[in-house]
Amino acid sequence: MANNSAGNKRFGDMGMSKFPGERLGLPETGTRSVGRIGRRIGAIVIDWALAVVIMMLISGKDYLSLTSAPGGQFGILGVFVVLQIIAIPIIGGSIGHRLCGLHVVTLRGKHAGFWRPLVRTALLALVLPAVVWDSDQRGFHDKIAGTMLLRA
Length: 152
Known about the structure:
This protein is mainly alpha-helical. It has helices spanning 37-59, 70-91, 95-99, 115-125, 128-131, 140-145; strands at 102-106, 147-151. Strands 1-2 form a two-stranded antiparallel ribbon. It is a multi-pass membrane protein.
């Protein structure tokens, strides 16, 4: 039997990351590490709930029931988008991100600016780009915008 040393490489030797963010030079845990799924879900739940409350205050309608008008859901999405686009450049992430200890930065670790949140949020609103990830747990919306979600 031939010696197949190429097939015996360790996981890290094959160009694959041992943890999310390793390829980007980020730490495995703690500050400046990639924001994990639990924090991300918590952040989006907070942001969506805030959008629902704001929409209910604006419209005076109840959007918490299953029988609420479907058109109102687009209004909630609109409020959600506006909150994202405003908050990311101003406070470095959405309100949910910040409450969950996350922030949005460029690949160089700089402030996201103003156009990146627009692109990122437009793709986030489409949902699918946000649920397709790479090995660094960066969603397609972050990859296109040139951003990443890190622990603060």
